[in-house]
């Protein structure tokens, strides 16, 4: 049985952290909130502890984990040859939703953290609970998103509980996460830094600080081995997701066509689509409020699993700013499905 402890409760706050630190120190896993999504943590220097993450999530072994730190001083114990541009990024965006892929110092972390790669992804999360936990523990914590592998990442403690109940000892409940999409992953082992996964820190924001960055073609199979996580099914509700042009008449027409086939449809969309006649509607907030859409997206995808919808329809977003990250997740969730009427 998995325990959920609130860190917002004044009376149990300190006990929650003590318990989490005790569990992690003794090689167990603990789920905790970050500003992006909930993570499932284990001490990054223990192969046995890290293996429990893969087991609880059902995660493929060749998909490396992100290492979380509470202070920049920890970096030098497991990285080497940190480029200047990477240091500039740390100063500009840490703590925050930016993961830096850097060369790893040999034998400094458990092998299964990096899936045997010569690089490691590192970030300092910008969340009071994550930072308090890391600073009390004083050790690097490997933590992927705390969902069952293949499902949308958890943005609330209840999502972690739904996916991992009985498989992990403790969830620290710090309420809903802010950003709602995983961190930007930026690779510094290429000549020009390369975005392997778009997130809350956008290409535009990075380029203001360090000049040109490349975007890896995230759907191109040839590029896939660079961020091993990209080749797996992701963010998938039970029913298939179909992307569709962001036009009210097009969406209405699609819904009618699906109903003609005697199927039910769930619509995940911003509020200009509220009046279309889908069987289920999950809001992504007001039109053009991309931060709200990012914050609401994973819960909306999860909510579809509580319905009997046969098809999930999602009008697309422009690939600008956070829209790039939203579309990256939606394209993976849809796995190439495009609704044509
Ligand atoms: O916001 C986040 O990053 C969350 C929170 C918990 O911090 N974590 C997260 O972890 O999303 P995860 O495991 O779900 O995603 C890690 C991504 C994967 O796509 C993985 O392939 C990539 O980072 N990655 C990790 N280490 C890497 C490395 N050395 N080289 C290339 N890609 C790496
Ligand atoms: Mg994940």
UniProtKB/TrEMBL annotation:
Keyword tRNA processing listed: yes
Alphabetic keyword roster: ATP-binding, Cytoplasm, Nucleotide-binding, Nucleotidyltransferase, Transferase, tRNA processing
Domain YrdC-like: start-end pairs: 14-201
Gene Ontology biological process terms, A to Z: regulation of translational fidelity; tRNA processing
Pfam name, any one: Sua5_C
Location in the cell: Cytoplasm
GO molecular-function terms, A-Z: ATP binding; double-stranded RNA binding; L-threonylcarbamoyladenylate synthase; tRNA binding
Enzyme Commission (EC) number: 2.7.7.87
Gene3D superfamilies (UniProt xref): DHBP synthase (3.90.870.10), Threonylcarbamoyl-AMP synthase, C-terminal domain (3.40.50.11030)
Keyword DNA damage included in the entry's annotation: no
GO cellular component, one term: cytoplasm
Family: Belongs to the SUA5 family.
Protein role: Required for the formation of a threonylcarbamoyl group on adenosine at position 37 (t(6)A37) in tRNAs that read codons beginning with adenine.
Protein name: Threonylcarbamoyl-AMP synthase
UniProt source species: Psychrobacillus lasiicapitis
């Amino acid at each position: 049985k998995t325990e959920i402890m609130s860190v917002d409760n004044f009376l149990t706050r300190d006990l929650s952290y003590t318990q989490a630190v005790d569990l992690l120190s003794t090689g167990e896993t603990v789920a905790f909130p970050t500003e992006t999504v909930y993570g499932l943590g284990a001490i990054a220097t223990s192969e046995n502890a890290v293996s429990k993450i893969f087991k609880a999530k059902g995660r493929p072994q060749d998909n490396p984990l992100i290492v979380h730190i509470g202070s920049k001083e920890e970096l030098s114990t497991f990285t080497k040859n940190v480029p200047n541009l990477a240091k500039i990024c740390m100063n500009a965006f840490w703590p925050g939703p930016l993961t830096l892929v850097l060369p790893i110092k040999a034998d400094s972390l458990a092998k299964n953290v990096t899936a045997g790669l010569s690089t490691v992804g590192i970030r300092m999360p910008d969340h009071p609970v994550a930072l308090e936990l890391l600073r009390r523990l004083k050790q690097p914590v490997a933590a992927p998103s705390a969902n069952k592998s293949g499902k949308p990442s958890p943005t609330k403690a209840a999502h972690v509980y739904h996916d991992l109940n009985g498989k992990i000892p403790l969830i620290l409940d710090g309420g809903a996460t802010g950003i709602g999409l995983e961190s930007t992953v930026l690779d510094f082992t290429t000549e020009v830094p390369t975005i392997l996964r778009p997130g809350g820190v956008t290409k535009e924001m990075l380029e203001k600080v360090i000049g040109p960055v490349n975007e890896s073609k995230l759907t191109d199979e040839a590029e896939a081995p660079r961020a091993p996580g990209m080749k797996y099914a992701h963010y998938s509700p039970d029913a298939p997701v179909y992307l569709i042009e962001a036009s009210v008449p097009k969406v209405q027409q699609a819904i009618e066509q699906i109903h003609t086939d005697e199927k039910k449809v769930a619509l995940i969309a911003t509020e200009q689509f509220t009046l279309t006649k889908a069987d289920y509607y999950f809001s992504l907030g007001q039109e053009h409020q991309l931060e709200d859409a990012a914050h609401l997206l994973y819960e909306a995808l999860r909510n579809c699993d509580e319905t009997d919808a046969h098809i999930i329809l999602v009008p697309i977003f422009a690939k600008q700013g956070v829209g790039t990250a939203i579309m990256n997740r939606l394209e993976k969730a849809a796995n190439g499905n495009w609704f044509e009427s």
